[in-house]
Amino acid sequence: MTWEEYYDKFYDWATSTQIQKISQISSFGASDEVWEVAENLFDGKAATRLIKKALINDVRFTCEEIEQMIYYIDTDVINRAFQNVKLPLTEDQIYIFDGIVDADILKEIAKKSGISLETYDEAEQIIQETPAERRKRHRKEFWDGAAETMMIDLFIDDFFGKKKR
């Protein structure tokens, strides 16, 4: 069965027929149609099966489509779809998938898109401070806190007025 036949009849069939006919699909259409059908199956396992079969048949999904798949399709299939995503991606699109897609795949796609992840990794590193710097920071935080408390106290006194005896 061709993708066109499946897609044209999809909404006329019962859910069980929609799922059963997935194995009969011999060719696939555009990625947006494939994702639309997978999303409307309302069965995560069947949708995963359809997406996996589409990937085997060289369907390449957009970043937006893969982002929508995250909570619906198995992680392994998300990784495979992301490996074949339509390029290039923006830096924001790459960072959306950080922690969702395998790190090696993310680095590979970032490199293909001309995005360096090194600056992102550097920004996440914990800043190490010396004991002298820590004492200086604590002293400043203490006096800033004391000044804030004093200002609040003065504000309350001015706002409500001091009671005179």
What does this protein structure show overall?
With 165 residues, this protein is mostly helical. The protein has three domains: 1-86; 87-125, no CATH class; 129-165. Helix content is 64%, strand content 0%. The protein contains ten helices and no strands. It has helices at residues 3-9, 15-20, 31-40, 44-56, 63-69, 75-83, 91-96, 103-112, 118-124, 131-160. Helix 3 (31-40) runs antiparallel to helix 4 (44-56). It is elongated, with a radius of gyration of 28 Å. The termini are far apart. The relative contact order is 0.07.
When the domains are counted, the total is 3
Number of strands: 0
Provide mean pLDDT, rounded: 90
- What is the 3D shape? elongated
Order of helices and strands: HHHHHHHHHH
Main sheet specs: none
Radius of gyration equals 28 Å
Give the percentage of residues in beta strands: under 5%
What class would the helix/strand composition place it in?
A: mainly alpha
| Cα end-to-end separation | 95 Å
> Ranges with pLDDT <50 over ≥5 residues?
none
Helix share bin: 55-70%
How many helices in DSSP terms? 10
Task: Quickly describe the structure.
It is built from ten helices and no strands. With 165 residues, it is mainly alpha-helical. The protein folds into three domains: 1-86; 87-125, no CATH class; 129-165.
